Amino acid sequence: MLEDPIRWRRLVAEYGALRQPGSGLTRQARGQRFNGMIAELLTSFGLRAKSDQRGVGELDVVFNHAGRRYILEAKWEQAKTGTGPIAKLQRRVEQRMAGVTGVFLAIKGFTDEAIDEVDKGRRLDVLLLDQSHWEAMLSGFVPPQELFELITDAASFQGRAYTPLNELLKHRPETPRVTREPVANGTDGMQLQVFTVGAVDHADARRAGVAVDPGGRPLLTLEQGILAVDLPAQRSKWVAPVFGCNNGSLAMADEVLLIARGHGVGRWATGQLTVVSSGAANLDDSHLLMNPDGSAWCLDRGSAGAASARLIRLGTQVGDEKWYELPLAVTAAAWLTTTRLVVSDGADLLLLSSQLTVERRLLAPAGRVRALTALNERQVVTLSDDLTLMRLDLDTQEHRPLGRLSSMAGLHGALVGRSDNSLFVIGRLLAKEGHFAVAEVELGRRPADGEVSHRPEPEVGGSGPWVSPVEPTPPARGRVRATAKAVAGPPAVRVPIELPPSAHAAVRVNHGMSADERLTEQRHGYADGVTAAVAIPLYVLEGLLATNFEIASWLRPWRDHWDRIVSGHAADGETVPDWLPSIAQFLGVYAAPTRVAHAQLTPSLPYVVGFADGLRAAWQDAVRGRLVPPDRETLSQWVRTPLSRPGLPVGLHTITDLRTIAERARRLRTWTWIGRSLLWLVTLVVGVCEIGAIGTTVTGQWEPNTVTNAVIGNACFGIPFIGLLWFAIWDLRRLSNGGQPPRRNRTPSPGPQEHRRTLRAEAASTPKEPLVEPPREHGDWVLSRPDRGNPPAEYAAFAASSGMYWTIVGINTLLVIVLAIIIPTAHIPLVAKALLGLFDAFLVFATIGFANMARNPTRLEIGRAGIQVYSRSGTYWFPWQALESVEIMRLKAGTRHLVGWCTNPELFPESSSSGEGPRFLPKLNAVAICPLNTLHTRRHLVARALHTYGGNRYRNPSKGLSR
């Protein structure tokens, strides 16, 4: 049994890489890793195995199965293995207790002499495996437990140490008879022929499946192998006598047949079996699919340990396959075109694009979809649990019942199309125990043009009362703001759901669902709403509050904004907000315009109601946690508050960000009180010591009692006491001011105009050093700009922390003063005084440097008008009109930088004297605008500000690029 599917897939991929010539491993290293792979594979399938065990001779792998101990020797060499290594393994087996079996695995196989020597020698205690056996185990085509049982049986009963995989799995059962049933047993006027396949010994109905060969004849998958059936002639023959096959097969060109077995896929051609790929994580659950371009695929519907369903493109050898994760659980699938796939999640049908994303959801008929097949690019046929056949036109979404196979019991996935007008279904015949029935269904005429099915109109609204109409305001150009004007009802009133125009034709209606289904959908929507709410910016949640959590009215302006961008009518630089596609994955047509693939997804009304409830619950939880204001008016004012400290504007924060900030604030308060307590305690202790020093000076108890000793003693305690006392008084004033730095004059908060003048005055008064070269202009672009380029409340600011630098300045200043007193007064050698003087001078220069860094910390502002950088080398301005694109990337030095591409980037120097200003990157022909490692912020916040204000000029961050 496969216990670890994730490790199993990793081993398959690693084996494919090891087979490549450029794997980068030496022969010895590859052999050691091969031993580890064998042990890991056996462990993944539930066997206890260990690699590289030392005892009487080194053992590559040891394991046990069914009460028998095995020691395995592995060789991955360029030539076949001869008698020498096998004889060495035999000696090691002889050194162990009776009951130990040796296994020799040689990738390139064995010489004829070596096989004859083992078979014709003494008692057989060694089994020989080659690459075909290894790949059969690795792919799961023959799981390890089954393989060791088969080769042990062959060695025990036939006396053969080496049995090819082809011989191990070949089966020669009796060919069953095929007879025509006298009465067609379809309902609803379905035209069909039913043929009976005679009883087959030890038949397992769960493994059965059906396929079709190039000549249009059905290929039945039975436990004994693949059976070709000629229905008109009522004859059959085994075309692939490989026992243990399951589900359907695939008939390829040149009489090649792909078969599924266990967890893997094999190829049968000219009487020879070759394992080509791994398959499904569940045993006997690999479903083969044929792409119109002739490529072969396998559907893995997933398992409890395999995380999700996958689509596997088969290669020519194990390890060459490619896995593609599917976005949902899948019960059946079929290719429509070379790039489009139709799948079923058991209830509905979904169209997937070439990127395996959901393009459109189609409502399937009642009943769980057991299997489906594509007749052509626009028509599919589904088979439900009660063996009812339905044909669906994907363009018109018309369901046409074909009938029900009343005399057959269904088999999993037993449905295949032969042409546009016929298909095969396999099942168990109820009238004859142990017999299989093959029904050839004639589909009859296609739906006439314009013919539509009768479908109930969607139910709009809910049981709650209506509220006053809401008129949302579309998002302003270049602004991240969506406001709404509404006469809202009480917050607790349930608002009816207003459907978008394109949803009326495909929505699942309330009265078409049972009460349990509606409750399940609503709970699902509630969970998704809670998940989505914490990742939506506050300026968006403000619009949601304005519409009283009415989904359609809230998303309508954003959907129209997205539609303008998709249709090309949006202004230059406008982009879709990064949160909107995420919401569209849940709400589909409510959030996405018709030109976008997400619009093909129409959630049910209970789901949308539950989603709104989840958004409301997440908001109320944030209010209870005091993260956001409780009413919309206060929230609106709070969102538009200008920045008082570096960081993102309030409107760009999410509930998750607010929780993180609150948690950091709690930790900061804890450490602040710890530091405050230590400061007061140390100040008290040093003050007591200074009082003692003063008392000692007054009583003349210094030894010797000289003026020098008295000055030094009082200075050693007095100067630190004065500094600590100043910090303690400043901290007390800060504490009395509510945690803010003390201000001399308390004035009312400035208005917008006063705030603008304050910001410009602050920027103009910032000390600056001269530029490396004189500032130059490029058209209307001024490289150096003294005032703030972005309007108030329309920018995000990120700055380096100056508190640490000021702390270092304070400590260094105290040390400089103490050393200045000690050096001339202390009775120490002249050499020591000189060294202390040099150290004191170094501290002076270091203190000046830290003071400059504290007075002029690097500051990055990203706003509506552009990017502005404040550094010690100057102030630089990058308007959006001058920037072609910006990106966050890791440069050669290992630090992350904000890099911009603009015209004439060589205007900037290739290096900055302070190391913090913009500089030219010749290899990229770009400008390193600002290093991000020095900023007191997180990279994803900078990326959010760039995406919000920069629009389509911002590109996704590079992953570990070295420039």
How helix-rich are the residues, as a percent range? 25-40%
Strand order of the largest sheet: 1-2-3-4-5
Terminal CA distance reads: 48 Å
CATH architecture of the largest domain: 7 Propeller
The SS-based structural class is: alpha+beta
Shape: extended
Mean pLDDT: 77
Low-pLDDT residue spans = 446-499, 501-511, 744-779, 958-963
Strand content: 15-25%
Pfam families: Mrr_cat (PF04471)
Region (Disordered): 448-477, 738-783
Protein name: Holliday junction resolvase-like predicted endonuclease
Transmembrane segments: 677-698, 710-730, 805-828, 834-854
Write a structural description.
With 963 residues, the chain is α+β, with helices and mostly antiparallel strands. The chain folds into 4 domains: 5-169, Trna Endonuclease, Chain: A, domain 1 (3-Layer(aba) Sandwich); 178-442, YVTN repeat-like/Quinoprotein amine dehydrogenase (Methylamine Dehydrogenase, Chain H); 473-524 and 535-631, no CATH class; 795-801 and 857-953, PH-domain like. The protein is 32% helix and 24% strand. The chain has 19 helices and 42 strands. The relative contact order is 0.05.
